[in-house]
Task: structure prediction
Amino acid sequence: MKPYTYRTIIEKDGKYFHGFVPALLGCHTCGKTIDETKKRLREAIELYVESLME
Result:
């Protein structure tokens, strides 16, 4: 499978961080730290792309 790169945005949202992928509508997550949010975004992107392929 060809690797793709997606721009992600992480913003402070109160006590937490909100991360989303502008190119993938509805692909977003949150976490207590930036690192946790990055990890969750990677997982969200994988699941999002897998669902598109089905």
Q: What stands out?
A: The chain has one helix and three strands. The first strand starts at residue 9 and ends at 13. The chain has one domain: 9-53.
